[in-house]
User: Fold Carbohydrate-binding family 9-like protein from Flavobacterium oncorhynchi.
Amino acid sequence: MVLKLKWLAVALGLISITGYSQSKKPVIPKTYVAAKTTKPIVIDGDESDASWSKANWTDLFEDIENGVKPKYATKVKMLWDETNFYILAKMEEPHVWANLKQRDTIIFYNNDFEVFVDPDSDTFNYYELEINALNTAWDLFLTKPYRESDIVVANDWNIPGLKSAVKVNGTLNNPNDTDEGWVLEMAIPWAAYKTTFFDQNVPADKFWRVNFSRVNWQHSIKNGTYERKKDAEGKFLPEYNWVWSPMGVINMHEPEKWGYVYFSSKEGKDTFTIPQDEKVRWELYTLYRAQKGYFEKHKTWAKSIADLTAKSISVDGKILKPTIENHSSGYNILVKSPFSNTTFVIRQDGKIITK
Assistant:
């Protein structure tokens, strides 16, 4: 069943139906080089596997909006082979608890760990996976970000062949002791991200846009059982959102801000630098968000770049010269990259195409 979840997302606080406020500080996506592993990885939630010892940890997660250091540490390792994308997440947590046991329920009502993947970096047709400490999964496919009013979410989409395991360093659902935390290990088959049967989508020596989020709730204990904490009026206190790559706003569903994971097939250490054309695309999304704000205020689309920004736009010292084409159903913003001479076009729905 394909579900319309736009209004559910609003009700759950995932997005706001008005306003496009963003961080005043620039959001620079994180990068990570995932090495190729030649040895099988046993998915058991144990980080002592020899293959993981050769992988680096990411930076510690940050608050999703303001970059403040979270109360508890979270970090990730990544590896890959011809079959799977391997992820190891380690979360500090003195009270490990979970009570959702049915797949595809709203897992972030528990403390959870979340994976977001956009293979082609166009912000459309991306994937989300949430898992709690009971190893209960919610996997879904999104045709567009929530910011588009006609969003349709395939909530019944499942990752075929997903393997995941949780190891609790302590005792699950026991409020009488203090835990160290929990480790989540998973193998996501590349085949889950295929667009056609014959799609050869293993990203060797390529990057995908990826981000990770950890949802953590304040809790109370009632009759020896953990539950989300409520305020004096009986409303649940807001959750903490801690992420690998900063968003600058409380919304994971802006894929253009996700991190860059480069899947290296090189033996030994490898490096990755964000391509300059990616930075050109970032500027198009800044203009796209400005157009959203302009429309909200004026009930019509801006007809010139000067209506959206008074500043010149540059990338690595090169001036960009974007233009707007208005049409009956919206607009296109076009810009020619000074680095590759590729013309990028962002449409009113936020999708970027190339000419």
